[in-house]
Amino acid sequence: GPAHLFRLAGKCFSFVESTYKYEFCPFHNVTQHEQTFRWNAYSGILGIWHEWEIENNTFVGMWMREGDSCETKSRQTKVHLVCGKSNKLAYVSEPSTCVYSLTFETPLVCHPHSLLVYPTLTEALQRKWDEAEQLLYDELITDQGYKKILKEIFEEAGLLKATEEKEVDNKKISLEFETVEKCNKEYKQLSKEIKRLQDLLSQHGIAYKGISGE
């Protein structure tokens, strides 16, 4: 991520709301401590530093995942970085069960370019991104194909954790076409297959309902 944010590493920032104290340690974890005299007061981890959330060439947040278990899943937290006069944890909420939202203010993100992704990449990955932009501009890849290339770039840069593709019956099922060329090729093959099946039905005298105009 942005090198100027690394100076936050090793520091922790706390925020107290009613009986809870939240502590955010950038690039490390987020914890919550219940400040009561109950014998079973909760104290635990709401997430461990995992990956960035990226939108429109901008680092929009930090994901802290794989915290303490909560029913069937693990607690996780998204930290929003906003411009502020000093480094401080400003707001905490729980928009959905066991998914927390933290707002962290820091002067380190006040510059309009401070959270841009492209400058943090190596020259090789910047070239790969430039090529993808050109392919999209020339309409040689779809928007979906472009997003897939960007995701690969971010994973290679270590900004995102690589997600394993889900397999159905051990076969990868993909209904996405990254390029118009691939889509056309696939369409021709399917058209041939339909023609072959239609001929087969005709040979056996089986009536089928064709689509008009095809």
UniProtKB/TrEMBL annotation:
<dbReference type="GO" id="GO:0016740">
    <property type="term" value="F:transferase activity"/>
</dbReference>
<dbReference type="InterPro" id="IPR009011">
    <property type="entry name" value="Man6P_isomerase_rcpt-bd_dom_sf"/>
</dbReference>
<protein>
    <recommendedName>
        <fullName>N-acetylglucosamine-1-phosphotransferase subunit gamma</fullName>
    </recommendedName>
</protein>
<keyword id="KW-0964">Secreted</keyword>
<dbReference type="InterPro" id="IPR039794">
    <property type="entry name" value="Gtb1-like"/>
</dbReference>
<keyword id="KW-0325">Glycoprotein</keyword>
<keyword id="KW-0732">Signal</keyword>
<keyword id="KW-0333">Golgi apparatus</keyword>
<dbReference type="GO" id="GO:0005794">
    <property type="term" value="C:Golgi apparatus"/>
</dbReference>
<keyword id="KW-0808">Transferase</keyword>
<feature type="domain" description="MRH">
    <location>
        <begin position="10"/>
        <end position="112"/>
    </location>
</feature>
<comment type="function">
    <text>Non-catalytic subunit of the N-acetylglucosamine-1-phosphotransferase complex, an enzyme that catalyzes the formation of mannose 6-phosphate (M6P) markers on high mannose type oligosaccharides in the Golgi apparatus. Binds and presents the high mannose glycans of the acceptor to the catalytic alpha and beta subunits (GNPTAB). Enhances the rate of N-acetylglucosamine-1-phosphate transfer to the oligosaccharides of acid hydrolase acceptors.</text>
</comment>
<comment type="subunit">
    <text>Homodimer; disulfide-linked. Hexamer of two alpha (GNPTAB), two beta (GNPTAB) and two gamma (GNPTG) subunits; disulfide-linked. The alpha and/or the beta subunits of the enzyme constitute the catalytic subunits.</text>
</comment>
<dbReference type="Pfam" id="PF07915">
    <property type="entry name" value="PRKCSH"/>
</dbReference>
<dbReference type="InterPro" id="IPR012913">
    <property type="entry name" value="OS9-like_dom"/>
</dbReference>
<keyword id="KW-1015">Disulfide bond</keyword>
<dbReference type="InterPro" id="IPR010506">
    <property type="entry name" value="DMAP1-bd"/>
</dbReference>
<dbReference type="GO" id="GO:0005576">
    <property type="term" value="C:extracellular region"/>
</dbReference>
<feature type="domain" description="DMAP1-binding">
    <location>
        <begin position="117"/>
        <end position="214"/>
    </location>
</feature>
<dbReference type="InterPro" id="IPR044865">
    <property type="entry name" value="MRH_dom"/>
</dbReference>
